[in-house]
Amino acid sequence: PAQAQTPAAWSPPPASARCPSRWGPNDRRGSMNLMTPARMRDASALIREGRKIEIGHVLAQSMPFFGTRRFDVHLKQTYMNPQANRRGSNEELVVGEIAQIGTQFDCFPHQTIGDETYNCVNVPSIMTRGGFTEMGVDTIGTIMTRGVLIDVAGLKGVQTLPDTYEITPEDLQQALNRQRVELREGDAMIINTGWAHLWGRENARYVAGCPGIGVAAAEWLIARNPLLLGADNWPVECAPSRTMPDASLPVHQIALVVHGVHLLENLKLDELVASGRSEFCFVMQPLRMQGFTGSTVAPAAIF
Ligand code: UVW
């Protein structure tokens, strides 16, 4: 599907329009406030067959990396203990941005508008050598909620949306209509662009740009109160933005900083798409790394 580019100036809303957030001036959890016991119980009711599909990629040195990110693995030498049972031992030493590689979950300190992140928290004031003192990924915990797949590539009848195709609110609504599923507050809202087809095959193209949601589609989804927004591309959003070419990753600012909605990137959705399931129990445990901006993760769809 061809798209006309309609350039528009965009700048993030001023602090007076962003803060306090809908959760109050002292809130640090944003969309994670929707992770309630009732929502977890309702999500468990979606498990009927007992089938589990991994929707994260394997963390591997062959995966694509955004910018200068890296993942170097050094196997630490096997040693043999001197005792009679001759126990050997192997492990790995890793050098890499473990918060921001592979299938990854973004927390609020990851992005800013100027010096501020979610709820106008001044980022330098929470930044220490030991990590961020507030809103780090260690504060997230296990996520279990209803997941909804929005298959835009399927709607368009393609394996992969064209490079830099910008998904509109109409695309999202049409995809949901086609799949006969609706969004509910607290859902993990997950978009299939098909871009993951390039993962490990065309890594340079994968990170050069990508199809994804535009600002209008992000605002449309956020108005439906997601627990998180996820996609099978590296930034969830279309990059570079087609309708707002003067802005760098505007959906990152809108979701994380303006509305306190977490992002989940680099999903692997081919098996879930093939299963025909649009609604499932979404489960994920971000690593509890103290004060980190995010975490590499291994989410699953269970139904
Ligand atoms: C950047 O931080 C630039 O991107 P992402 O959050 O998509 O990894």
TrEMBL record:
- UniProt entry keywords in alphabetical sequence: Signal
Q: Which domain of life is it from?
A: Bacteria
Among its keywords, does the record have Signal?
Answer: yes
Write down the InterPro entries for this protein, in alphabetical order: KFase/CYL (IPR007325), KFase_sf (IPR037175)
Write out the transmembrane intervals: none
Pfam families found in the cross-reference section: Cyclase
- Show the segment(s) annotated as Disordered: 5-33
Q: What is this protein called?
A: Cyclase family protein
Question: What's the source species for this entry?
Answer: Roseococcus pinisoli
